[in-house]
Specification:
Length: 139
């Protein structure tokens, strides 16, 4: 079940250049990590109960690099927090919505993630994310 907005992902060419506006507003980069599966570096910026994620491509052929090439910097996706990602994934598939990955994969901050194609979500790339409290493999 979906509980809240987890984060907003923003595509940027450079985390170092993009983080300044957030720091000027009193926010700070909590961590920067790499997500090799997606070819992206992610800066995690807490903001209340949610966060902002700055997404910097690690390679020219990564999805975020392609997004930047086509659309320029800006909002890449909205992430919704799930308490049972596999059930939410199955429910969306059964209802005929197009998800991007064959099954959930590991994303930033130790979470399991699945993406809903913008064609199925009113033009918005949606990410569903489930925090793995054990930090290990999900069921």
């Amino acid at each position: 079940m979906i509980g809240r907005i987890d984060h907003v992902g923003i595509a940027v060419r450079s985390i170092d250049e993009a983080k300044g506006i957030y720091e000027a507003m009193g926010l700070h980069v909590e961590a920067i990590e790499e997500v090799p599966y997606d070819g992206v570096r992610v800066a995690l910026i807490p903001c209340g109960e949610s966060r902002i994620e700055l997404l910097e491509p690690m390679a020219e052929d990564s999805p975020v690099a392609k997004f930047l090439s086509k659309r320029g910097p800006g909002i890449h996706h909205i992430c919704l927090r799930s308490d049972d990602l596999r059930a939410d994934d199955a429910r969306l598939r059964e209802a005929g919505y197009q998800v991007i990955r064959p099954e959930p994969t590991r994303g930033a901050d130790g979470c399991w993630v699945q993406f809903v194609h913008p064609k199925s979500a009113g033009g918005v790339l949606l990410e569903l994310s489930e925090k793995d409290p054990e930090g290990g493999e999900s069921g």
